Amino acid sequence: MSIEYSNLIAIRNLSKNKLEGQIPGSLGNCNRLVSLLLHSNRLTGSVPSELGGISTLYKLRLDQNFLSGSLPGPLRSKFKMGMQY
């Protein structure tokens, strides 16, 4: 999807799509995103800190992937409890 249209999307449900690779930091440019569901894929690497810059984001699911490291500071403080990683 072109980045010019990505700002129009409020909910991205990409769960259970067998996605592989790293979560792109460019998702941080989706400034109207309220829900990002990436669980049950084959994602690897760390969670990009750019996701913490999405002020409208209130739901983030990253569980059932192969992610490493800890959540970046902005996300850790935003999702203190109830975060599924």
Note the topology.
Layout: H1 3-6, E1 11-13, E2 20-21, E3 35-37, E4 42-45, E5 59-61, E6 66-67, H2 73-78
Parallel strand pairs: 1-3, 2-4, 3-5, 4-6
Number of domains: 1
Distance between the termini: 25 Å
Contiguous runs where pLDDT drops below 50 for at least 5 residues: none
| Class based on secondary structure composition and strand pairing | alpha/beta
Please count the beta strands (DSSP E, at least 2 residues each).
6
**Mean pLDDT across all amino acids:** 86
Task: Describe the protein in words.
With 85 residues, the chain is of the alpha/beta class. The chain has one domain. Helices cover 12% and strands 20% of the residues. The strands form 2 sheets. The chain has a 3-stranded parallel β-sheet with strand order 1-3-5, with no helix packed on it. Strands 2-4-6 form a 3-stranded parallel β-sheet, with no helix packed on it. The longest helix has 6 residues. It is globular. InterPro entries: Leu-rich_rpt (IPR001611), LRR_dom_sf (IPR032675), RLP29 (IPR053213).
Task: Sum this structure up briefly.
The chain is 12% helix and 20% strand.
What distinguishing features does this structure have?
alpha/beta; 85 residues; 3-stranded parallel beta sheet; LRR_dom_sf; L domain-like protein; single chain
